[in-house]
Amino acid sequence: MESHEFPELTKRSLKRINRARYKAREELKDQRKDWVKNNYYETFDKLLPPVIDTLPRVDARNLSCEEFRNKYELPRIPIVLTHLMDDWPAMNKWTMKKLAKKYRNQSFKVGEDNKGNSVKLKMKYYKEYIEYNKDDSPLYVFDGNYGDHRKKCQFLKDYKVPAYFSEDLFHLVGERRRPPYRWVVFGPKRSGTSVHIDPLGTHAWNALVSGYKRWILFPTHTPRWLLKQKLPDSEAVTWFKFVHPQTDDKNWPDDCKPIECLQGPGEMMFVPGGWWHAVLNVSDTVAVTQNYVSSANFGASWHKTARGRPKLSKKWLAQLREHRPDLAKIADETDLSVKLAEQSDSSSNGSTSSSSSSSSSSCSTCFSESEDSRERSRSRKKSESRKKRGKRDMETEGGRKKRYRSKTERDRDSYRNNSSSHSDSWDERGTTNGKSSRRGSSEHSNKDRRREH
Ligand SMILES: O=C(O)CCC(=O)C(=O)O
Ligand SMILES: [Fe+2]
Question: Does the pLDDT at position 390 exceed 50?
Fold first, then answer.
């Protein structure tokens, strides 16, 4: 974003915006042209084939909590719920114009620097950035602190957590101690969240107030290597460009075929725990998302939490004993040394997606002894940085990687050898941009490790 290209911006705006951009993507700090090198600003609309939206819509006015639980939550079936947001004040109040006015001088998280610190930008500058940027993968607001903020907490007044999701068992450990769980998410066309599984086995809902989001979801058993490929960077748009076409390849495993969806305003996505997903904003969007644990996914979530966050799980268990002895019993009976059979059960953890445009730090769903002990020692060392973690924090494969690799590497090779049509993939060309790997395109960047639970 050179100043001569954007005469609309004052020097001050440009300075603030660029400061945030260079912090959030330090690999592009000295390569200013690289922000626009793919010219997605011009080509974006034709970059991907049209969405074949196969995700059923369910009218929430005809769906009881019990039905939701039995038909979707327990069997982990993704769904789009409609008419849940009809009476939210957000539907009128959350236009970028109104938000920019109301929160003009509030700072929002637009990314993380190389050390894992939040990069923030005041709304008044971000609004200008949305309007004038031509970046291939623009900065994306993923702000999880609004609930504690004197002014930004007003977001809470504009929406209501639907009854389907109200159980929210991490609530028991208290607001300060619980892992990050709610985010306001807004950004321009081309921003998004790269492929990941949500943290700690949580289910998620994502309520789109305005704009359109392109979703792709993969079942819980989809192997990590199929989705987490080496790419030029870890931006959502890059993932869609390189990996999406492969999903039509004849060698793409039939049982790992994705579900796609074009989510529109007023639609609420339910993402069951353990499902891989990636999101690309095809227009400017404003959304709110929350992750939660209910008795329907408690088993998987307890498994992940107890193994990855021993301290937190202790506190959680103490509260469960008092308030939910039924679940405490399940926790007591869980054999934490056992690897769960279903990836959907063992699935993710971590926290979210991108604070800028990608959720680089996604995670797989693996359990092993070595992961467990590794996570435990990490959790001791990194309690400080943990406080800063955002939703994007994801578990990685950790110590399991070695064992996992030997088998999956074989699968991967056989997939590649048989594959005819994904030679377009970065992985195949064997080229990576070392500069950008810190964003997590390399499997276990330091940044990912910091984000592990
Ligand atoms: O809206 C998005 O960009 C994706 C959000 C997401 O994946 C999440 O909240 O976990
Ligand atoms: Fe997610």
Answer: no
